[in-house]
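Example record used in the benchmark description.
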Amino acid sequence: MNVPYYSAHMLDVRNLTKSYGGPSGRRVLDGIDLRVQPGEYVSIVGESGVGKSTLLNLVAGLDVPDAGEVRLEEHDLAQMDENARTLVRRARMGFVFQAFHLLPHLSVARNVGLPLALNGHSGAAATERVRELLEAVGLESRAESLPRELSGGEMQRVAVARALVHRPALVLADEPTGNLDPDNAAMVLEILRAQIKRDQAAGVLVTHSLNAAATTDRTYELTRSGLQARPPRTPRA
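Model output (structure tokens):
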């Protein structure tokens, strides 16, 4: 008898393994487990070259593992074809990167509203959701501005609003404060955490900064030996 899959975790990664270069190639990840509940925000730190980007790409469904499972809600991304993964990614994931990736010819409001448009949402409800997110990140007055008229910190706040506007189940942030000064970095991290908590998304932050990692609920360190939990740490003042 086939028993339906169930997990209390929004994101459930089990025994994830990935190598590059064929059977005799380099194994980047080996037996990685990671589980994140709704409303939980975790961080992953580690030296360059240990596989943080590879892990993020696998969790996002941008790549497929050699073995293991990547489940987001009821979806097993490792077993889906590329088109199906793309649809899940568009509807149920939000991304924040070190580079802002705003479309330069679109206003702030239209940049934030892109995920809604891509998922077929328009009209008054979509407009109100964009306004709500811009208010949350403190940029409601800049709705009609173009990206070139914004500071780096403002552009990253737009990127955060865009990542969260469609209420994704999973938010993936890859070095989101790498291009920001300390004050703007702290503001972006505070907004990201608050919005993940409010929307009860699962949040995963990949960062080199232990201070950024300290803003999350749990921190893991990825090494060549695997993924290990780190003890809690208090952010610097």
